[in-house]
Design a protein that fits this description.
By secondary structure, the chain is an alpha/beta fold. It is built from 15 helices and 12 strands. Strand 9 and strand 10 form a beta hairpin.
Length: 386
């Protein structure tokens, strides 16, 4: 088998799984994204839901509706201003290099599982000339003690809230305040990677503005939880935002027209943001039903992490080969019209045969009762050669 043959098989398998899930009447999690035509139709609905004057002229180089979105985000986060960015990677690069220049330190303290370390191809050092230190290596949020014990000076502490690759983990509110205070003791500024900050309010029991007030700058995403097309915002003090927009231009982020992305973001703030607390609440039911239902059906090791989700996302771990789990998921979708895991795949992050997938509880999952989930879990387990 050639590499091209393998690639073709992977694409064919993905297409088959997507087609099967699209044909399902019920999907708990991992529903495929819309088709191109579906996106065009969705954008028309987003335009109606965005709450802006559609008779006005389109944006040009960041004015108009882009400025409306920036004002909306600054209001939600309680900051003096916000800057729209085409990507979160660009937004965070800009934020961290600004703070490096202002603090006089090119060292950023962050978790080794944080997004810039794992998913950005070393952009912090390659593009920004920055270096990183790790307050903690264990798959958990850093503590105040971890921050105090970093063996060398650093200018910025970056906290990813929640820490996605460790299981969408959050500290408690008091722990977060203590970590920020520990950074201040070391004369460091604090930046929040808040790509998923929108859904953190139930866990912390605080408004977005109170959470953001702990940090010097905050990044938020418009597509991870709000179902936008893409895009991000960087929020903070007025002079910080002015400088961020200058760096945005230098990084190539001053796009001529951005209204499709911005309209989708505004619609997401209007439509999805109010629903996120219900997703977070239901995630606890979904996690318990999956864990107990799969375990009772005889699936080895069936675990969710964290055991009680901190947000509307969590990890599901099973001691079964990923290929067997994916095959069972496809069979269930094709034969029953019901899918537990949608188009999401399992993978084996460490030990062979110990598989994991990420579960996201959103609108479609609200229609599933605990009994529904347990029944589907039993049916899924019955398709595995245990």
């Amino acid at each position: 088998m050639t590499r091209d043959d393998s690639d073709d098989e992977v694409k064919a398998a993905k297409a088959r799984r997507t087609a099967a899930v699209r044909a399902c009447g019920r999907v708990l999690t991992g529903a495929p994204g819309p088709t191109l035509g579906g996106l065009v139709e969705q954008l028309a609905r987003d335009a109606a839901d965005a709450g802006v004057d559609l008779e006005g002229r389109p944006d040009t180089y960041g004015d108009g509706v882009v400025e409306e979105l920036e004002t909306r985000v600054a209001g939600l986060l309680g900051t003096a201003g916000a800057a729209f960015f085409p990507t979160g990677t660009m937004a965070q690069q800009v934020s961290l290099r600004i703070w490096a220049a202002r603090t006089g330190s090119d060292t950023v303290a962050l978790h080794p599982m944080a997004h810039p370390e794992v998913h950005e191809r070393g952009a912090l050092s390659v593009l920004g000339g920055l270096r990183t230190v790790h307050p903690v290596k264990a798959p958990r949020q850093p503590t105040a003690g971890d921050v105090r014990d970093v063996a060398e000076p650093f200018g910025t502490l970056m906290l990813e809230l929640p820490l996605r690759d460790a299981g969408f983990l959050l500290p408690s509110w008091e722990e977060l305040r203590e970590v920020v205070a520990a950074a201040r003791e070391r004369d460091a500024v604090v930046h929040f990677d808040g790509a998923r900050l929108w859904e953190c309010t139930p866990h912390f029991g605080r408004a977005l503005s109170e959470i953001a007030d702990l940090a010097d700058s905050v990044y938020v995403s418009f597509y991870k939880s709000l179902n936008g097309i893409s895009g991000a915002a960087l929020a903070g003090p007025a002079d910080f935002v002015v400088e961020a927009k200058a760096w945005r231009h230098r990084y190539g982020g001053m796009l001529y027209r951005q209204f499709p992305t911005v309209l989708a973001a505004l619609a997401g703030l209007n439509r999805e943001l109010p629903r996120l607390p219900s997703y977070v609440a239901h995630a606890k039911t979904v996690a318990r039903a999956l864990r107990e239902g799969l375990a009772e059906a005889g699936v080895p090791l069936a675990r969710v992490h964290p055991q009680e989700p901190h947000t509307h996302q969590f990890q599901l771990w099973l001691a079964v080969a990923a290929k067997d789990l994916d095959a069972a998921a496809l069979e269930q979708a094709e034969q029953t019209g019901t899918s537990l895991f949608g188009a999401a795949s399992f993978w084996e992050p460490g030990l062979p045969g110990l598989s994991m997938t990420e579960i996201t509880v959103a609108g479609p999952a609200l229609e599933w009762t605990e009994a529904d989930i347990r029944a589907a879990a039993a049916d899924f387990a019955g398709r595995l050669a245990l």
